[in-house]
Amino acid sequence: MGRGFSDDDPFARRVPIGNAHLDFTSLIDILFLLLIFFMYSAAVAIEQDVDTPAARQSDQTNPSDMTVVTILADDVSGAAPLYVLGNGKGEKGNIDAVKNYIADGKRAGRSQVMIKAERLVHHRFVNEVAKLVTKLDAGSVLIAVKESP
């Protein structure tokens, strides 16, 4: 006879017949952990600060001839900032007050809007004011930068 296995052989490989059951619980746990990790790491990568270069040339402008909006950071959390209507000293308001202030400046004949923002103000708030200027067709937008020594 050949080298076959008998039913009594303890070293014979037994193939399960019938109800084969695979437990996917641990696989699903790992899948969700990876999903959460990549979603969190993508969110952190999106919120990185933008490192803007220093200004190479300076245009000396007179803020009294333009509409100036100053944006002050409320806190580090990114909550809505405080808008100051004027060159750092003036009436405080929200984005609707800024819209009215820019419209008043356009009616007064000022064709430039300067946006000043503190360092901790998120770019989206500066961009929101710049979009208001474009939407109201109030002239050109100047963004104030602090010159490096």
Write the layout of secondary structure elements.
Elements: H1 25-46, E1 67-72, E2 82-85, E3 91-93, H2 95-107, E4 112-117, H3 123-136, E5 140-143
Parallel strand pairs: 1-4, 4-5
Antiparallel strand pairs: 1-2, 2-3
Helix pairs in contact: 2-3
Describe the structure.
With 149 residues, the protein is of the alpha/beta class. It has a domain at 64-143: Nucleotidyltransferase, domain 5. It is built from 3 helices and 5 strands, in the order H-E-E-E-H-E-H-E. A 5-stranded mixed β-sheet has the order 3-2-1-4-5, with helices on one face. It is rod-shaped, with a radius of gyration of 32 Å. The termini are far apart.
Brief rundown of the structure:
With 149 residues, this protein is an alpha/beta fold.
Which labels suit this protein?
single chain; 149 residues; alpha/beta; Nucleotidyltransferase, domain 5; five-stranded mixed β-sheet; 3 helices; 5 strands; 33% helix; rod-shaped
